[in-house]
């Protein structure tokens, strides 16, 4: 936290930065908490997300906007309208103020763009070596209309699995930045707030027809679909040929032996929808700038073992497993 | 005779319990026949424990019976235990009868079934004798032959529990079945053209081309015609469907390669007899016996000079073919039809020109197709017609595959299993040294070439090969195999063993079963399981070294292992990792295992010669970028794998860049090495061994990188020298540690030991160093044997905690 010519950045300086950049009425009140109205006929949704990422800056984003998008998306996946965010920072002593400023400004821009103010926050500084630059936790509050029920346990056999765009962009963008890998065309993180895409989708189909929404972040599509399959007590059958994947992401996966199904996304959603609305839902997603490359990638099926399976490009079938951690070699 | 032997006072009565593989092998008729010969009275029957009999007669006659039981029981039977209880004489008893089987509660079952057996000579004589009532009957069998394991739903082995349940016997068959003098007395699957199952020919979409009513001859004539015309048929066999074609024609082979998405995996072949086999392959006496054995495995045999080159589509890049002889009457009949229906039954002993491709019908690595509905869906696109029948396959069994490798350490013919399935299962593997009352354990194996193993007392029952566990269907197959073994054996496992890999389905299933049964799980390190499998079949009690060479298995430290020198304290008990092969990075994880060129690149990089990668692997679009991946160690787990060293060598010496099928690179490299005439000299300075027994192979790596491969002879020589050098290094390494550990036995485990030049060089050299060498003879040395080794570890675990 060196400030200027070797001086220690004071907490006060940081707090001033936050107040100036995040500026909004609730924050201006200067109280220990923010007071929010809840309109009648709504319930509150609360979601929280901790953000730890290396590198802090990557093509298409940084930890700042990521921490806004992550929590906004968590609320959006519940079918809620995000209304406010809190932010908590843990800074490592010696962290450059210029970087901090860049992060905070990116956060503020993301919040402004999403229309979700950061209404309260906190900062702590830890000794050098006790943190990794900066950790950001965000918590969000959202409003959920009464009677809306979107959740991981709602998928039923016959339902259709949609994804809002190309897979693995974020994972490859971060990796290539971290390892200074150059690909023929740069891969940019997809980090984005998805609540307007969700709102469009929910407006286009009858209530209840969207069973499940999830953002396939850490662990990727494979992990997320396995979670849903287990929660809903169903299986799924994906079609490899239908997965939207950028050629440069595909190439990176091939070189590094990575499986795109397990790579993180930060601006994509999976929608499991009733079969009769699948076409309308897909058209709605595609009509939105964040869903231009949306695709129908598979169906939900009955399966006592809750396997997520995939028809491969070669006509075989394989199970897309829920891994216990990083993929470990298994070919003996 | 009566006058001498029947003073009333000398009468005795005995109850006999015979356990082992004693059902479905003609044991009851045999007992009845012996009893009548010796004028004994009483009865015999099957029950869930095996066979039960009461015999009454003069002491001498009973002794003669006991002797016959010991010396000449029915050929297919495997008697394990005989229990004799004296009973009170029943004064008025006369005659000897076979009683109906007694159904027993499943928990009490202690018997088992014999494996499926090829038609016996007596049946073949009938099959090919015009005028016989079973002339050309595709389902001929008797008590001495025929399907068993694949045909039986549950024990006891009686017709209602088999696939013949829905085929009531005609009077003629019923009479044979009932006649104690008949070869088919109590042959459960007995059938004839009047009452048995029937064959038919279907179009790929399931439409009937030739109905069963048209008769066997019409169906066979059309099938043979199509084979001659170069078509591919899906043919229902004993344990599943095969895809069949005339292997001497190029077109059907190319079509199958394209449709099955396997550019290079060797195809298995069917020949009529050993005389016909000799036309194509070199066949020693031992191999000929194996090829003709009732189990009818696929046997990998070196081709006659020029043969492999003349038929390159059969086993691309290899000089060995996998041959089998007919394992069932339908295979025989296809050959008979193709031979022009010769009238003389002797045709089957004479050389026949037919060479049929016969590859398992398991599309996309899924389990073997066994029923008609599935065949239409999954094989419709691969086959021009389906040769089907209405006798159900109740259990899958792929063809077993064995590779003759000379003699074992004890001087017996050595035919290790590559795959253990039809003809072998459910034959138990004896576990010498394990107490007969040991608690039963289940082991769920690994991931590739999966098998499961259930023990009962001191016997291990390993399931048929279940394939790779990547698909839902093969996982279903694993679950069914567990259930079926349990049903057959009637035991409740007291522990469930599994691999350490957290993401194998076999691991998850083991944990789920153990939880449901409330018994402990026993996680077993992969290479320890390989070692334990070998030690278990030999009943090795004391300490031993184990040299385990395979692709990769998860180590106790969470790292990938693969070329391990272990010290085992005994079978299944504790182990220590003494040393391992020098590690190579695996650029791209499992992707590297499919792309040997990545290992070639990794080896160059490890020598500090990463700059050569792009030029040496110029055909690979990613070759220019892999250096960076290796520099930064991106997804480059370091693995001490032996299999990957073979991959690296194959990429550098044989130009094999991609594995079209498992171990293709190693197999092609081996084929190259075997082309080198005469003995190969190890490279000088191929390895060094320090005082701690750490093996350094940089010399070998450098020789691989520097070998001239511009001419076939130089290539073959380099491949041969690689094998010789590696063998020399391994032998010195093992000998060093054996001395340091004061151990005189070494077990060889892991899939690399199926490699002929490696094994042929290493085994005698280890013996020459005074070491006793133990090899895998009963179960595959590769991952197909893991479940056996895991079970041995679980048994030791329970034994310790007793
Ligand atoms: Fe292995
Ligand atoms: Mg979250
Ligand atoms: Zn027979
Ligand atoms: Zn009959």
UniProtKB/TrEMBL annotation, chain B:
Pfam family, one: HypF_C_2
Domain Acylphosphatase-like: from-to ranges: 13-100
MF terms in GO: ligase activity
Superkingdom, natural source: Bacteria
The reaction(s) this protein catalyses: C-terminal L-cysteinyl-[HypE protein] + carbamoyl phosphate + ATP + H2O = C-terminal S-carboxamide-L-cysteinyl-[HypE protein] + AMP + phosphate + diphosphate + H(+); an acyl phosphate + H2O = a carboxylate + phosphate + H(+)
Active site per the UniProt annotation: 28, 46
Keyword presence, Zinc-finger: yes
Pathway in which this enzyme or protein is active: Protein modification; [NiFe] hydrogenase maturation
EC number: 6.2.-.-
Keywords annotated in UniProt: Hydrolase, Ligase, Metal-binding, Zinc, Zinc-finger
Record's keyword annotation contains Transferase: no
Residues annotated as domain YrdC-like: 217-423
PANTHER family in the cross-refs: CARBAMOYLTRANSFERASE, CARBAMOYLTRANSFERASE HYPF
Family: Belongs to the carbamoyltransferase HypF family.
Record function comment: Involved in the maturation of [NiFe] hydrogenases. Along with HypE, it catalyzes the synthesis of the CN ligands of the active site iron of [NiFe]-hydrogenases. HypF functions as a carbamoyl transferase using carbamoylphosphate as a substrate and transferring the carboxamido moiety in an ATP-dependent reaction to the thiolate of the C-terminal cysteine of HypE yielding a protein-S-carboxamide.
NCBIfam families with a match to the protein in the record: hypF
Name of the molecule in the record: Carbamoyltransferase HypF
Source species of the chain: Ideonella oryzae
Lineage, opening ranks: Bacteria, Pseudomonadati, Pseudomonadota, Betaproteobacteria, Burkholderiales
Gene name of the record: hypF
